[in-house]
Write a structure and sequence with these properties.
- This protein has 120 residues and is of the alpha+beta class.
- Helix content is 34%, strand content 22%.
- A 5-stranded mixed sheet has the order 4-3-2-1-5.
């Protein structure tokens, strides 16, 4: 059975509240889970102690059993010092591609060439 440690959403519309749960990966997000491991309330300020509450012993137990944390949960565990920090890819999505950069260079060169005779 492929186990995941993930968030299960609760709370009303526009008022999210999450439970940190150990669940079978085939179950739906808010569906059946095996054990509740903590809570996460994103509406609280980031420095609040009640924002993320975790039962660290049980989380370590499930990690030892082979459960895989989701990306968001792994970030929470890294901040809590339960697991080592991972190197994540720093994707440069804002940087244009090679062809777009070449076109921009050509356009700049044409503009510079057009300005040079006009200044004489």
């Amino acid at each position: 059975m492929a186990m995941k440690i993930r968030l299960a959403r609760g709370g009303s519309k526009k008022r999210p509240f999450y439970r940190i749960v150990a669940a079978d990966s085939r179950m739906p997000r808010d569906g059946r889970f095996i054990e509740k491991l903590g809570t996460y309330n994103p509406l609280l300020p980031k420095d609040s102690e009640d924002r993320v509450k975790m039962d660290v012993e049980r989380i370590q137990h499930w990690l030892a059993q082979g459960a895989q944390p989701t990306d968001r949960i792994s970030r929470m565990l890294e901040n809590a010092g339960v697991i080592a920090k991972k190197e994540r890819a720093n994707l440069k999505k804002a940087v244009p591609g090679k062809k777009a950069q070449d076109r921009a260079e050509e356009k700049a060169a044409k503009a510079a060439a057009a300005e040079a005779p006009a200044e004489e």
